[in-house]
Structure formats: C-alpha cells, structure tokens
Amino acid sequence: MPPSRPLLLSLTLLSLFSCMESSSPSARTAVGWQSPLYQDHALIGRIWRASDQRFITVAQLQQELDRKGFLLLGEKHDNPDHHTLRRSLLQQMMASGTVGTVSFEMLDSSQQALVDNIDSADMGSAEALQAHLLWDAEGWDWNFYGPVLTELLAAGVPVRAANISSEEMMAIYGGELDASIANVMNAQQMEQLNLDIDESHCGMLPASQFPAMVRVQQSRDASMASSLSQAAPVGQRVLIAGNYHVRRDLGVSNYLSAGIAGATAVPPADIVALGFMEVSPESNEPADYTEAFSSTAPYDYLWFTPAVSAEDYCAAMRAGGQ
C-alpha cells in the first residue's frame, strides 16, 4: 500500500534534509529540488552563518533558531523550494512545541477577523479555507501558502495578519507617516531604501514617487513588526515574508527594536533573520548574496537553493513599456 500524501511529503523532506547534511555537493543535489536552474551549483542546499562566515548543518540551524524569540523567515515568493524548506522548519517547531504565533505578510489587516473566526466548516477543505480567508490568489499562490496555513491552524497555532490593507496603503501613499515609524531609519538607511525602490522598478519609476513608495515600505515593515510584538508572549513569534522584509539592516527587525506603537522594544539579540536565497552562476561566494551596504549583516543565515527563472525582469519591463 503506497504512503499517504502527508507521509510522502515527510519522506521527501527527510531525504532532502539528509542530503543537505552531507558535505558533498553531489549529495546535496541528489533529490528534492523543484526549482530547475543551477541544481549543480556549489552552494545548493548549504546554510551560511553570517556571524562567523561558516557553513552549518540543518541540525545546527534548528538548534540556534530555538534560542531566539523572534524568527523572521524569508522567501523569494515564487520559489517552491523556499516554501518547502521553511515549511519543514515550522513542522519541526510544531513537533517540539516551540512555535507560539505565526504572522503572514500574505494576510492583511482586513483579513484578521476572518482568521479569528475560522470554524470547522472552513477547515473542511483547502478550498473552503481559501474562500473563507478571501485569499488573494493572484498575488499569492495558494499552493505555496495553503498547506502551511492549514497545518498551523489544525495544530492550534495562532495565525496573524501582518500586512497593511489596500485602503491603508493608499492612505499612506498620499499622506504622511507617524513620526514613530518615519524616524526609525537613519539617513543611510533611507538613502538605501530609495536606491532599492529605484532598482526594484528597473529605473522606470519617477523620482517624485520615491518618498511615497518608501512610506509604504516602511508602513508594511512596521505593521509586520506590530503583528509580532502584539502577539501573546508564549513561544516563538514567527514572521513569514519576502526576503527584503526580513533584512536586519532595512526591514522588520528595525521596528521591533524601536518599540513602535507603544510596544516593548525587542533586543536585537532576540531576533534572527533567515533568508532563502537563489544561487547565481556568477558567484560561489556566500558574501556576494547578502547585498550588504553597512556594517549590519542583512541576514543571520542564508539557505541556498536552485533558481526558478533566469529571465531578465527589467528587460521584460522595459520591452513592455515600449
């Protein structure tokens, strides 16, 4: 009799983790990867620790994560391997009883009441849960997030909406930020946010729109920080968000440590940022992937995976704008 689907998933994850514990690059690429590009890259499956610039094992990572109160777990949104690896970490946390709450970038403030009022009928199927949450399937692939949401809710783990709503975003875009949020970043950080906004829009965004876009970025990060700081202080508080949001130098941790909105300031030592990073054929050096611009390391750990696509996003944007 073949194994059930959950068991098959567990066996796949176990096999994948076993391969990644090996020091052999060939072993690390043997099974499990869903992203098609650069599977023979020297960094595939390896975990880089920024504090001493060394590679560590999955077991070491899990042990070190267990010591932190706030876990910021990143992703490249369309990379299935990032979702698989992160889900396996959360499964380990649920099994050991360490996870307290999980906040999602993919849920905004308008959906928190829906999360709080899930009943057995909503949990009857993945489709029912998706419909109940009014999930934004165009923005967030339900196949990536639905399974982990279902597992968390079934285990009784509180789930929190971390993002601002569309209405809040529009108000912030056309208005001003609360000073407690606006003043969290220093001049160097603000300059980098503006540079990154420009780069992420491939140099096609008018400079006059930079301040509004930065306000929205800051508001999202502040909202994610508030979601974590306002959660019940029982167990580890976890954020699931894009890699940029979990950066220590520019993202959520800055607002956690600032203690915005009356929240108790979180010591930086109690926050950990894990970025899941696609490899590039242009570099085998982990430090090249951090995009550091200051003495603050963007991530405490980088976990390397194959890439989904080699498409030049900016070239496609510019071609579409012609």
Quick summary:
This protein is of the alpha/beta class and 322 residues long. It is built from 13 helices and eight strands.
| Average pLDDT level | 89
C-alpha-based Rg, rounded: 20 Å
Which structural category fits the helices and strands?
alpha/beta
Largest sheet: 8 strands, mixed
The amount of helix comes to 40-55%
Distance between the termini: 57 Å
Enumerate the strands of the largest sheet in spatial order, edge to edge or round the barrel. Answer: 2-1-8-7-3-6-4-5
Describe this structure in words.
- With 322 residues, this protein is of the alpha/beta class.
- The protein has one domain (40-102, 158-320): 3-Layer(aba) Sandwich (Rossmann fold), CATH 3.40.50.
- Helix content is 41%, strand content 13%.
- The chain has an eight-stranded mixed β-sheet with strand order 2-1-8-7-3-6-4-5, sandwiched between helices.
- The longest helix is centred in the last third of the chain and has 20 residues, at 210-229.
- The termini are far apart.
- Residues 1-15 and 22-30 have low confidence and may be disordered.
